[in-house]
Amino acid sequence: MPPESEPIKEENQGVQAATEPQSQPEPEAPQPQIQPPPTPEPVTPVQSPKPSIPSLHYPFFGSYPVAFDFAVQPTDERIKKKYQEWGIVAHNGIDFGLQEGTEILACDEGVVTQAGYNGDHGISVTIKHSWGTSVYSHLQSLGVLINDGVTKVQFIGASGQTGFTTGPHLHFGIQPNSPDTNNGYLGYINPAPYLTETSPLPQFPQSPLSPQSPEPPDLSSDLSAEPPSPPQSPQSTPPTPPNPSYPPVASPSADQEEIEKQAIAMFDARLKENSMKGNQSKKAKRDVAIQKIFTFAQEKKRITNEQVRDLLHISQSTASDYLSDLVNRGMLKVEGKGKATVYLF
């Protein structure tokens, strides 16, 4: 076994390696220069155009607090369930804290498209305007009927707590033309930016005893100031008349008559005021009754005086009066005469 055989082999390998041509690295292809992408310009998100709604009047005289604002989430679980039933994510109107019987006004001119019982809204009124609709809910009574034309600030009903409610208030909502019914509020929008007009509470004529009226003269000082007793001379000397420096005591008869006149005038003014309020209340009750009859006629298509009496528990003459009113307004048609009279929707 030759000891040098292995080194010789290594030497031969070394020679072979030295004689082999060494491979040269291939030149790299020029890399294309990558240009940075252009900076995109900011894109303004497309927003729905703002509804063209004019200045609106608050639906009442004076000023009242907001009890529950637009887009507010309720904490009452019952109300939350109702919101789910109605398909809204939060409150879709404004609740104003009004006492029962407060006059409700139209926020703008338009035509009444709904007036009467309206499910959870209770007694409500819906008005169609040139720009959209307005809704007034939970009323106590009505002041208008369907198809009535109304002007801005016209009386349309009285506030109450009918329908699904936790207390007396007015729910007020507006919906513009072509509403976005997928906005989470059934197409209703916040009315606050458009409510810019107010009117003070109407003042009744001042009674005669108001602070601006002349007050009756105060006679207390004159009546209480007695003239000094004149000096009495012994026996034969007559009494000396009162000191002329004191004014004579005024007779209260003329002033008493004036006070009585003022009291009578004040009583008359109060009587007229109460009569006006009573007439408004009677009109509201009459309108509610007529609305019930009209709704009943819509359902039945044909109604009689007897059916109306049973519906409202009223006399025959009152039922005839209400039905005649609906006929005169063109809301019902009459067929037949006497007991055979039928009213058609």
Automatic annotation (TrEMBL):
CDD domains reported for this sequence: M23_peptidase
Task: Spell out the residue ranges making up region: Disordered.
Answer: 1-51, 196-257
Give start and end of each M23ase beta-sheet core domain. Answer: 91-178
Q: Which SUPFAM superfamilies match?
A: Duplicated hybrid motif, Winged helix' DNA-binding domain
Q: Where is the composition biased (Basic and acidic residues)?
A: 1-12
Q: Which InterPro entries does the entry link to? A: Cell_wall_metabolism_enzyme, Dup_hybrid_motif, M23ase_b-sheet_dom, WH-like_DNA-bd_sf, WH_DNA-bd_sf
Q: One Pfam family for this entry, by name?
A: Peptidase_M23
Residue ranges under compositional bias (Low complexity)? 16-26, 199-210
Q: Where is the composition biased (Pro residues)?
A: 27-43, 227-250
Q: Which GO terms describe its molecular function?
A: metalloendopeptidase activity
Annotated protein name in UniProt: M23ase beta-sheet core domain-containing protein
Question: Source species, please?
Answer: Candidatus Gottesmanbacteria bacterium RIFCSPLOWO2_01_FULL_46_21
